[in-house]
Amino acid sequence: MKNEGIEGTERFLSPDRGRGLRAVRHFAVGELVFACPAYSYVLTVNERGAHCEHCFTRREDLFKCGKCKQAYYCNVDCQRGDWPMHKLECVAMCAYGENWCPSETVRLVARIIMKQRVTTDRTPSERLLLLKEFEAHLDKMDSEKEELNQADIAALHHFYSKHISDLPDDQALTELFAQVKSENILIRNIKMNVALMNHSCSPNVIVTYKGTVAEVRAVQEINPGEEIFDSYIDLLYPTEDRRERLLDSYFFMCQCTECTSRSKDKAKMEIRKLSSPPEPKEIQSMVHYAKNVIEEFRRAKHYKNILELLEMCELSLEKMGAIFADTNVYMLHMMYQAMGVCLYMQDWDGAMSYGEKIVQPYSVHYPTYSLNVASMYLKLGRLYLGLEKKSQGVKALKKALAIMEVAHGKDHHYVAEVKREILDQK
């Protein structure tokens, strides 16, 4: 079944994976497979003021909505373009003031409801995949997810019932929230790709964004008849960890080539070379500790001061380092958190030290054209330049650029920005 708007691909039903997308022609590395404008989207609260609410352009000279004074735009055209959706929030934000606090998911569902009411023709994204085709997985939700769904429905009623007449009934809302969460449609970035393509831990495409348009590019050679695979999750972690994340969020056990071969697991779980190697139980206990501390760190960001966070990182690294090598992914995860804390504290030397330990193992553990690797080279390059290490900075930026030109395309404004930074050093 050919796809309207996606030349060179076709949708098909896989016996093992359900709905999928495959190539009907050859795609070279870096070639655009297709682009998809968002059906609906929201900008996260912490990005407000730095990005335009309508086109997501990042710039410094944005102006704010005169009514709510919380939404920012490039110009009058962007404000007018966003008004059919923003007016829904604008009135509510003015009414609730500081008490306005729905989650991004609740805000997105409210926008989807409004979009369905005001749109008569199929949008470009619906020509690729209809919203009703998104999986809800209601039969696979545990009690915790059901409770979260009900909390979101209650929040939708609380913040929007006065401003959206005749909200759908609870059954319809339960399904819509489940669709948004299980397919990870689009919050801040556009995630229609998750619904259209199946997952692989060794993906042959990558999704990047130009404003509110998702662009899908080949990161491996794709031949006619081959299925097109995206990745739904962070690929840093070992097989069992990835499978747990996919099962929890997307309700399937991954059987991709990377999961069945486990080819990178040994390197990802590298153990420190000791005179007396640790027992398997000790290793498993440390993995359990690492997962717990990662979760604790995620929660701690909301209530601990920054020095406590850095101390937490250092203590966990010291404990894990008794068994794990520095290249172990759980060590790298905590180093990355520590680097972020150092950047926040403007401890540039500390951030650089962590970045130097992270970047090479990242290049081994992640796929060749990984945005995580590009981002690390970019951060490290800018740190080097700020610390007057010009040659190291340019070298790191060039490595980031080599990945970005494939992942984003050579005409992307992010690529142009990095090229300017390199040229400025000549």
Topology:
Blueprint: E1 2-3, E2 6-14, E3 18-23, E4 32-37, E5 63-64, E6 72-73, H1 76-96, H2 104-118, H3 124-128, H4 143-160, H5 170-183, E7 186-187, E8 189-190, H6 192-196, E9 198-199, E10 205-210, E11 213-218, E12 229-230, H7 239-250, H8 257-261, H9 265-268, H10 280-300, H11 306-320, H12 329-344, H13 348-365, H14 371-386, H15 390-407, H16 413-423
Parallel strand pairs: 9-12
Antiparallel strand pairs: 1-2, 2-3, 4-11, 5-6, 7-8, 10-11
Helix pairs in contact: 2-4, 2-5, 4-5, 10-11, 10-12, 11-12, 12-13, 13-14, 14-15, 15-16
Task: Describe the overall structure.
The protein starts with a strand and ends with a helix. Among the domains are: 50 residues, no CATH class; 83 residues, Serine Threonine Protein Phosphatase 5, Tetratricopeptide repeat (Alpha Horseshoe); 61 residues, Serine Threonine Protein Phosphatase 5, Tetratricopeptide repeat. Strand 10 and strand 11 form a beta hairpin. Helix 10 packs parallel to helix 12, helix 12 packs antiparallel against helix 13 and helix 14 packs antiparallel against helix 15. The longest helix has 21 residues. With 426 residues, the chain is mainly alpha-helical. The strands form five sheets. Strands 1-2-3 form a three-stranded antiparallel beta sheet, with no helix packed on it. Strands 4-11-10 form a three-stranded antiparallel beta sheet. The chain has a two-stranded antiparallel sheet with strand order 5-6. Its EC number is 2.1.1.354. It comes from Poecilia mexicana. It is found in: Cytoplasm, Cytosol; Nucleus.
